[in-house]
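Entry 14. Structure prediction run on the chain below.
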Amino acid sequence: MNIPLVEGILENQMVFLFILFRVAAFLAATPLMGGSGVPVMVKMMLVLSMSFVLFQTLSLEPPGELNLVSLTIALLGEVLIGLIIGMAANLLFSAIEMGSEIVGIQMGLGSANLFDPISNKQASLIARLQGLVAMLIFLVLNGHFIVLESMVKSFELIPFAGFYPSGPLIEYLMKLAGQMFLLGLKVAIPIIVALLMANVTIGIFSRVIPQLNVLLFSFPVTITLGLVMLGFSLPILTGILTQEVSGLRTVFNQLLVGMSP
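Output returned:
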């Protein structure tokens, strides 16, 4: 390891400690690295690497004199800053997965779940597929650079021990949560409408042809139609994600301003 870097950390231990806590909380909440499927050693190395780079790159002032209680509160504030930034980026993928869960249930695949090693939980097939597609589109649109840029910018706008949970911040977080549900419905509505029309048509056929076994007939029809509509709705998903990623800087700027003292 670079000797001047070690000497700098030893001379400014508090600065490195605050950077470490904020970066660790940020990576724990991000969609790419926050899952339990990522090895702990990889997470630790990434946290240390980012902390070293930020410590050398940014000229940050250490916090004032802090006793044990105020130090604990200040470090908790750093953790909350990192979590809020990471969770704001994760809301986008949560919305996609929520809409995909609704689609999977409408297709009749609600009970067909698989184990997701990234999130360490059960996930439906459609939600996992849409989540991976959304992640790839997000990376292609350089959304991860916007998230990292906002993380670095947080050190400029929010000094150490300067986290302030204001009323506008809480109100804006609630607004983002509401937009998550709206975004999930935007993703799911085209497929839901097509499946609803198919179910109505099957219901009409069941009245016209009583001998038709609706249960056996409806499952392959809804699953096939749902998969076809899923493929046709990919341009819609791409357009929605492009619009959301283009507005990420505004979202993060409002969050950082809301957290600044």
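The beta strands are 113-116, 121-124.
Filed with the rest of this week's runs.
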